[in-house]
Write a structure and sequence with these properties.
Radius of gyration: 23 Å
CATH architecture of the largest domain: Alpha/alpha barrel
Largest sheet: 2 strands, antiparallel
Structural class: mainly alpha
Distance between the termini: 58 Å
Number of strands: 2
Number of helices: 13
Strand order of the largest sheet: 1-2
InterPro entries: Terpenoid_cyclase/PrenylTrfase
Organism: Candidatus Kaiserbacteria bacterium GW2011_GWC2_49_12
Order of helices and strands: HHHHHHHHHHEEHHH
Keywords: Membrane, Transmembrane, Transmembrane helix
Protein name: ABC-type transporter, periplasmic subunit
Helix content: 40-55%
CATH topology of the largest domain: Glycosyltransferase
Strand content: under 5%
CATH class of the largest domain: Mainly Alpha
Length: about 350
């Protein structure tokens, strides 16, 4: 990983799965984000997507709204909003910014920025009640839920944003036309699921406290203790220093390892047809389960949400390790046991 957005998306993936982004894996994904803060903004000073997406994991990782990194990042994002209410003239990024800023609506200037941003989203709607594609619609639905906006107040040509999104779902359960590439449809469907569940990112991510670094007595060393909150940033070790992000915008979608989409400024694969970009991983098509129609998703929200929340949690990790161990032992047996058995069989049948 080289860009701060890489750390942001991985932190979001872990937090969505209930895994501590500080110590839940071999890599601390929060500290590199914090270390990229220059006192004014996060990451590359010419970009705003890395600041927008920092506001998803950091407040869930022990950083309060009045901390310097959060308050300064909010102020920087506000300065980057265009006169028409957009960020980077992007529907996706503007909708993402609405999600990121909504929890801070009481901060001076934020409420007005949210009003302008939603005005921009209304203006970009086509006469048929749709936006350009399902990617935009998914981000918009999440943004409206994040800001407690009634979808019924967004009826256009007889369609709410959710019904407009649902109209892009095909008979096989996938979103976007079956004439599109499989990769495009997988990404589009992944984007649509949290929108259909009425789940903005701030509701998806779980909270984790900052670790406390305690000096070891008599040794001069230090140890990290999880589960304790502090008022200052920790300095747990990271293996690489985050570099400048060369993309213009970034996005994230929920997968086990995670998330995003196109704009080819980043030297990574990314899903097509959305202006938010970041690094991504490929989701195998055979792992996609045919979903229920999107319009029915909200009716089944409690049970569906529990199923999603229970899938892939940290408590299931030992099972994966056991399965991996069995496969590894089988492979080793095949590699080392076969020659011995082969010689034995040849001797028996001479």
């Amino acid at each position: 990983m080289t860009a701060v957005t890489d750390y942001e998306r991985h932190a979001m993936a872990l937090m969505a799965l209930g895994i501590d982004p500080y110590i839940g894996t071999a890599t601390d994904y929060i500290t590199p984000i914090v270390e990229s803060f220059d006192g004014i903004q996060i990451g590359h000073p010419s970009l705003v997507n890395d600041d927008v997406f920092a506001l998803f994991p950091l407040p869930k990782a022990g950083y309060e709204s009045d901390s310097d990194i959060i308050s300064s990042t909010i102020a920087f994002i506000l300065t980057k909003q265009g006169a028409n209410g957009a960020w980077e003239e992007s529907v996706d990024l503007t909708a993402a910014a609405i999600q990121a800023l909504s929890p801070f609506s009481k901060v001076p200037g934020v409420a007005n920025a949210l009003v302008k941003a939603k005005g921009y989203l209304r203006e970009t709607r086509a006469l048929d009640g749709n936006w350009k594609n399902s990617f935009q619609m998914s981000w918009i639905v999440q943004a409206l839920h994040a800001s407690n906006e009634s979808l019924s107040s967004w009826i256009g040509n007889g369609k709410s944003p959710m019904s407009a999104l649902a109209s892009t779902q095909e008979g096989d359960g996938g979103v976007e036309s079956t004439t599109r590439t499989e990769q495009t449809r997988v990404w589009a469907t992944a984007y649509a699921i949290p929108a259909a569940l009425a789940k903005p990112w701030n509701d998806i991510l779980q909270s984790f406290p900052k670790p406390v670094i305690i000096a070891a007595s008599g040794t001069g060393g230090a140890s990290t203790v999880a589960g304790a909150a502090t008022s200052t940033a920790t300095t747990t070790a990271v293996t690489s220093e985050p570099e400048e992000n060369e993309s213009e915008t970034m996005s994230v979608i929920v997968e086990t390892e995670m998330m995003t989409n196109p704009v080819q400024q980043q030297a990574v694969s990314a899903p097509p047809h959305s202006s938010i970009a970041g690094a991504s991983t490929q989701a195998p098509a055979e792992s996609i389960v045919k979903p229920a129609p999107l319009e029915q998703a909200q009716e089944a929200l409690p049970e569906t949400a529990r199923q999603l929340a229970g899938a892939g949690t940290a408590n299931e990790v030992p099972l994966f390790f056991i399965m991996a161990l069995i496969l590894a032992l089988a492979a080793l047996f095949g590699a080392f046991g076969y020659p011995v058995l082969s010689r034995l069989i040849r001797r028996l049948f001479r």
